[in-house]
Amino acid sequence: MEAKITIPDDAMRIDTFQPIIAPDSLEPSTPCSPSRYPEARMSSSPPMTVKKTVTSTGARISTRIKQECQESDDMEAADALKPTVALKKSASDMVNEHREHLQAEKAKEMANEEVEESGSDIGSNRGFRLKEESHLGIEEKVQAQENPYTGLSYDEYRDYKREQKMADNKVVEAGSGIRSIPGFIEKEESEEIKPDLGPERKVHEEDVKMAVKGELCVGFMGSEDSADKEFAEYIRAKGWRSTANEKYHTSQTKEERPEEANDAESGFLSGCMVKQDPEIDSNTQIKEMLCLAKPVSSGPAASVNAFSSMVRGHTAKKERVEDRSLSTVLIEDGDFPEEPDWLLVGRTAITGLSTAKGRKLENNEIVHIVFPTGDARFKQSGIVRFSTKRSGEIGRLPMEWAKCLTPLVNSSKVKVLCRCVAAPLNLHLMQEILLYASFYIHRSVLTEDDKSSWRLDASPNIDSTIYPLLTLFNLLKIKPFQKAEFTPEELNSRKRVLNLEVDVAEAVSVLPMVKRQKGSQQYLEPNKDEQAISESSLNKLVGAAEVYNLEEMEPPCTLMCDLRPYQKQALYWMSESEKGIDVEKAAETLHPCWAAFHICDERASAIYVNNFSGEATTQFPAATQMARGGILADAMGLGKTVMTIALILARTGRGSPEDEDSNSEDEVDTQYLKKERRNSEKKVRSKVRGGTLIVCPMALLSQWNDELETHSKPGSVSVCVHYGGVRSNDPEVIAEPDIVLTTYGVLTAAYKIDGEYSIFHKVDWYRVVLDEAHTIKSSRTQDLYSLLCFLHVEPWCNWAWWSKLIQKPYENGDHRGLKLIKAILRPLMLRRTKDSKDKLGRPILVLPPTDIQVIECEQSEGEHDFYDALFRRSKVQFDQFVAQGKVLHNYANILELLLRLRQCCNHPFLVMSRGDSQQFADLNKLARRFLETNPDSATSNQRAPTRAYVEEVVEGIRKGENTECPICLESADDPVLTPCAHRMCRECLLSSWRSPAIGLCPICRQLLKKNELITCPSENRFRVDINKNWKESSKVLKLLECLERVIQSGEKCIVFSQWTSFMDLLEIPLKRRGIGFLRFDGKLSQKHRERVLKEFTETSENMVLLMSLKAGGVGLNLTAASNVFLMDPWWNPAVEEQAIMRIHRIGQKRTVRVRRFIVKDTVEERMQQVQARKQRMIAGALTDEEVRSARLEELKMLFR
Amino acid sequence: MANSNLPRRIIKETQRLLSEPAPGISASPSEDNMRYFNVMILGPTQSPYEGGVFKLELFLPEEYPMAAPKVRFLTKIYHPNIDKLGRICLDILKDKWSPALQIRTVLLSIQALLSAPNPDDPLSENIAKHWKSNEAEAVETAKEWTRLYASGV
């Protein structure tokens, strides 16, 4: 466009601008200094940006203002503020001082919104007043005063509004005071003649700007006269002439001063300073002035001089600024130059909406985008506006762009340059403006040498899964040249070829476990083992029946046993997943969560963006960073231990800083390990390289040790057990052997003491094996999450994604969460069961069949009477609880009632032992023995208890006082008396000792030996003399029959019971009938356990093993026996299942016969029904409330 | 999660602590972790800590009661056996722990420790030195600290 310069030639008018020229007018410290101006404009200038109701309210307000404008009454203009004020007051009523904080917050928000609205209101009013009264100095202040709004609390704001109103009134007065100033009035009139100009002064500014740039369309403005006036307006709008006007007032209207001073006192003038770099601001000014200088130079000499003197006064600044400012001026409609530091990402058209009216925009004109700054509350509105140099705000960007660009631009790593490509000649509100935007990314993002992962804080919400850079690429339609294998969209829409076709009913069957744990009384669950998930549920969870078509890998020659084909497959699978993908291949393979993008600028390399975390980098994210290792979740009895040993032997290695540790194996995780691993990446530097760390439950420690010993060629690997008192604290020492065995307890303890500096953290492990998890079996998804974290499974180790796509749906009972878990686990988990088939359809493992039968026992008459009496007594109690509505509060009591009934089914003696107090004939003997042994004992040098004390204790026992065990705080079970005459549970005492045979008395710290303990009363655990009065219960009778039959056939038997006291009872008839037996229960020390198991396996003297399910449930290999007797039903059949699995596993050569004993017409039978019912209920997800009422129902069933 | 396997003993102890609190001691479990207790101990009378309300935290480790609870003063206190991090030098919290001890007894012991500082087995060397060289002055400091940090909450 040809530059036409229109020069205002009226010297008189230019003269009025002269004061501007004084250099001190640029001082930013002047109360109305221009430095404050730009932001003032931002919040106040657009009269039409009434928040949310742009079209309706905006239009209405403007109309109203227009009318008021025509009435030209300042008072009314001020009145226009009133609606806002009133609104505010109603809001303030709401803010009842005693109300909750929340409400206050809400009110604040409202107030905040109102700030915006009233801001624009005031804007309109001011726009109007400006024209009316020309009291520019004060106007400026009003403008400036608006800024503090955003930072004000509601109350402050309200106060401010009052002052504001007062100030407005003053303005009005002041305005009328200077109405007589000639020239301004004249302009006023001239403007009112032009109705289509609208109330916004912006129009004028723009026009002036046009005039300056020489693009003025003369026809539009009509006359140079008005253009001249616009010019004045423009200068004022630019901010620096406000001071000029002050000076003007000083010289012309003296009465003005007090008012201004008054305003200044209202406190907002200096308090509301905008955070604006004064230098930049003055740069702008100079720039503007330079523009102005040109036209003016051909004007009257006075003004030229004035201008040039001003310019001279700022030469230094000007020169510095010139390149930039001049270039900006030049490109106002030109091309955006290529800048070395900014790389072009892409260009696209954006359709903005106008928020201004009038003729403001030229095609190809550059628009500037104004982003909300750091203020969080301001951010919330999130509106991104654009403006032009000459006309101020034009419109706003669509929200999708605003949302995506704001964080990007605020990170100052991205910038946007924008021009208008198409807009209506004369803008109305909410018209479409087509912009063409170029996006640049800063070089630093792409060239930083370090691992330069660049992550934008997309939103204050860390759970956010929306990432601006990705959104930008999307909006720019930049397609990744290499797509991520996993994308959130696919997961969201679940279109992914993940195998999600799962039977919903099946999938849901594990849900109630979670529900139940959320119940308020979780610790009173019948038994925590109940939370064990059954094998079949696990199958459902991970889908086991699948046929794995895996290669087989020959085990190393150091493995001293043969592997079955499926075990060789597992070996192959584990070593492959340990390697990750082929290392070379992996290095070239893009990590599946990352997508690769090319941006427009050819100088830039590819940019990789993580679809899940939003991280961006230029470093190739290779698949090597992916999860290595996996979960070997084969069903019990398939030989996981052997497979793992084969793996360790096949791939012995050392941890190294480059080759980060890999993991394999079981279904466990603990958060310590998670940390350990994370740590091992961070702090690999000074670590000792270790071998394989195997973490397992204490019960399996020796088994691991044994199996390592038996299955590996002697000397092929070194093993160290890091457990017990002899463990070293030197990382060098535990890094030395190839294999370190430890327990979760040791690990936990180490972590608790030393945190991330524990001995385990000081070693860079080559491999970590976690055996026997208790996590998946409790089926808590969060535990699974930590497992995935441990394995570094992306993107699932990102909490936001996990929570969004799995945790929450799962908790809400949406099966899709579970389906997704399955899909995630599938590639990570190898799970076969005994029923799995190989590719030819043959079972992978041929185990002898199991034969499970329920043996129904019928109580004898006497037994039945006893049971009946007990039942009736219990029922009375239960009914009381029901009547009081306190069943669930008395859950523990009720369980105790049930416990007695169940025990009574095993043998009435079990209940009698807790029943009525009975004289113990042999108590005197006990006392005598006690008093005799004490002086002779090895600890006789220690302080002996006084005779009186001992007698008191014995008397207590005689009276049947059952004292509370000082350790478990329960009434002592199998109590012992110490030589120091303290009484406690045997198990509690022994477990408090560090060594099995010797330890301190917990009460008096006297040294005790195990053999000094007096069982109290050892033969009198039952309050009847069971030996003398021995009578078999129907169940015991049945058992004995079975045992004798089996033993004759030469097979070994395992008898499981939940109660050691029942085993005590069983010992009597076994001894009497000469049946050799061994016992394995929780009281045995680790060493003892090993010995017992060895003896049972290797000798045929003792064909029966009495085993407590608790002790024998996990990991043990009991294949020497082929007969299982489950003496009492468990609340959770899965526990029984586990027990059976100990016997029915690899190595078992015979048919496994399982006999479950149930006494007819008793609580045992009903327990079976409850279990069945539970299984049914499990099919539907229940709320906590439903679970509670279901529990009540169950209890009622039991007492029917 | 932390609460699902809470041993009966901890439940019992908690119930008792709440139903029959020891004089001058209050201990209540945190809502989200039943093994974590917020504890307040009143400074024993006739000690420099008289009139003070001392906040402590107490945590029952997984091994509890086979391992001692972890206890720490949260309120600043001038005491030779308590360091500036609030850690307490008390044998029953270390090697002399016995499973027969309970939260209550531990807290009573700590309360007793306030009554009877033991500068011969110090945790805070400086304070202990102070205590030994000029007990009156040290006691004054302790009183001052009590007034400064432990008066009111």
From TrEMBL, chain A:
Task: Specify residue ranges for compositional bias: Basic and acidic residues.
Answer: 95-111, 245-260, 672-683
Please note every region of biased composition (Acidic residues): 658-669
Task: Report what the protein is called.
Answer: DNA/RNA helicase protein
**Which region ranges are annotated with the description Disordered?**
22-127, 245-267, 653-684
* Species classification: Eukaryota, Viridiplantae, Streptophyta, Embryophyta, Tracheophyta
Q: Name one GO cellular component term.
A: nucleus
Q: Which residue numbers delimit the RING-type domain?
A: 965-1005
Q: Which family does it belong to?
A: Belongs to the SNF2/RAD54 helicase family. RAD16 subfamily.
Recorded GO molecular functions are: ATP binding; ATP-dependent activity, acting on DNA; helicase activity; hydrolase activity, acting on acid anhydrides, in phosphorus-containing anhydrides; nucleic acid binding; zinc ion binding
Q: What is its main location?
A: nucleus
Ranges for the Helicase C-terminal domain? 1038-1200
- Extract the Pfam families matched here: Helicase_C, HIRAN, SNF2-rel_dom, zf-C3HC4
Alphabetically list the UniProt keywords: ATP-binding, DNA damage, DNA repair, Helicase, Hydrolase, Metal-binding, Nucleotide-binding, Nucleus, Zinc, Zinc-finger
Kindly give the InterPro entries that the UniProt entry links to this protein.
Answer: Helicase_ATP-bd (IPR014001), Helicase_C-like (IPR001650), HIRAN (IPR014905), P-loop_NTPase (IPR027417), SNF2-like_sf (IPR038718), SNF2/RAD54-like_C (IPR049730), SNF2_N (IPR000330), SNF2_RAD54_helicase_TF (IPR050628)
Name the residue ranges with Polar residues bias: 42-60
SUPFAM superfamilies for the chain? P-loop containing nucleoside triphosphate hydrolases, RING/U-box
Organism, as annotated? Escallonia herrerae
Q: Where in the cell is it found?
A: Nucleus
Give the UniProt record's GO annotations in the biological process aspect.
Answer: DNA repair
UniProtKB/TrEMBL annotation, chain B:
Query: What job does the chain carry out?
Result: Catalyzes the synthesis of non-canonical poly-ubiquitin chains that are linked through 'Lys-63'. This type of poly-ubiquitination does not lead to protein degradation by the proteasome. Mediates transcriptional activation of target genes. Required for postreplication repair of UV-damaged DNA and for adapting root developmental programs to suboptimal availability of iron.
The EC category is: transferase
Q: What GO biological process, any one, is recorded here? A: ubiquitin-dependent protein catabolic process
What does the record give as EC number? 2.3.2.23
Task: Tell me the Pfam families matching this sequence.
Answer: UQ_con (PF00179)
Q: Which GO terms describe its molecular function?
A: ATP binding; ligase activity; ubiquitin conjugating enzyme activity
What name does UniProt use for this protein? E2 ubiquitin-conjugating enzyme
Taxonomically, the superkingdom here is Eukaryota
Q: Which organism is it from?
A: Rosa chinensis
**Record field: transmembrane:** none
Query: What InterPro entries does this protein's entry cite?
Result: UBC, UBQ-conjugating_AS, UBQ-conjugating_enzyme/RWD
